[in-house]
Amino acid sequence: MEEQKKSTRIPRFMKPRDLIILAVLVAAAIIWFILSRQVPAGLQTEAVVHIDHVEVARIPLVPGNPLDYSFPERPSVHFHRYEDGSFAFVESDCPDKVCIKEGRLKQPYHYAACLPNMVVVTIEAVEGQATDPSDLEIDFVY
After folding, report:
1. What is the pTM of this model?
2. Is 100 exposed, middle or buried, given 0-12, 13-18 or 19+ CB atoms closer than 10 A?
3. pLDDT confidence of 14, banded at 50, 70, 90?
């Protein structure tokens, strides 16, 4: 009987060509993510605050002037406009704090909501500005 040689070869699941394709796809995804996070130059935005389905304020999001906001309809909910022109919930008496965890909102079509207090903040482009959705960040669930 002939002696059978045991294979000491390690199975390869990926070929070098597959690694190159994977590296190119990862690099393209990283570049797309970085570029999509930027607000188009010259686009003026404003935060629109709705309480009980009624618009109570339109706050221009201009960089360089941080301010705190609160409204008499919901005195327990506080907002902050940051120096970079972003806007966020900073305090709320709701139990889960999802509105605060949303973080800073800056780009048009971004929104945050405090459902127990019935407060919704959306970011919109100032009227008269072109708002081509293809120029803005693509929103997705992650």
Report:
1. 0.63
2. middle
3. confident
